[in-house]
Design a protein that fits this description.
Strand order of the largest sheet: 1-2-4-3
Structural class: alpha+beta
Number of domains: 1
Strand content: 5-15%
Number of helices: 4
Helix content: 40-55%
Distance between the termini: 59 Å
Largest sheet: 4 strands, antiparallel
CATH architecture: Alpha-Beta Complex
Number of strands: 4
Radius of gyration: 19 Å
Length: about 130
C-alpha cells in the first residue's frame, strides 16, 4: 500500500511570457513560417540532387539516412567531420535510438537560417561524405 499524494507545479513566469510572445508572433505574421518552409524545401532539393537518402516529408526536421551495417559508423563520422571541418552541428542517431540498420543524421532547420546557411550545410554533407566514404 502506498499513500496517495498530489504533486503540482506552476509554470514559471518566464515560460508564460515566452509562450505568449511566440503565440503573438505566429498570429501576426507568416513570414517566419514561409522562410522555414522555403529552407526545408531548398535543403531537401539540394540534398536529393547530391544523392543523399532523405526520409520523405515536408517538415523542417529532416533525417538524412545512412542505412546498412556500417551506417552508424558512417553517420557518426560524417557528423563529426561536419562539425570539425565546416562548423556545421548535426546529430547522428543509431541503434538503439532508431531501428538497427536505419542510422541517420537529423538536421533541424529554422527560419533564422539563411539560404547561404542551407547551402553551406549541404556542402558540408557533400564534403564529409567524400572524406568518410
Amino acid at each position: 500500500r502506498s499513500r496517495p499524494y498530489l504533486f503540482s507545479n506552476s509554470v514559471a513566469p518566464a515560460v508564460v511570457a515566452g509562450s505568449l510572445k511566440a503565440l503573438e508572433l505566429v498570429s501576426t505574421s507568416s513570414q517566419a513560417r514561409e522562410t522555414l518552409q522555403r529552407n526545408a524545401s531548398l535543403f531537401r532539393t539540394l540534398m536529393s540532387e547530391a544523392g543523399f537518402d532523405l526520409l520523405p516529408g515536408s517538415h523542417p526536421i529532416i533525417p538524412v539516412m545512412f542505412p546498412g551495417e556500417d551506417g552508424a559508423r558512417t553517420a557518426a563520422a560524417v557528423a563529426d567531420h561536419m562539425l570539425a571541418d565546416s562548423g556545421v552541428y548535426v546529430i547522428a542517431f543509431s541503434f538503439p535510438v532508431v531501428p538497427k540498420g536505419r542510422a541517420r543524421i537529423r538536421v533541424q532547420l529554422s527560419a533564422a537560417h539563411s539560404e547561404d546557411d542551407v547551402r553551406q550545410c549541404v556542402d558540408a554533407f557533400v564534403s564529409a561524405r567524400a572524406v568518410v566514404a
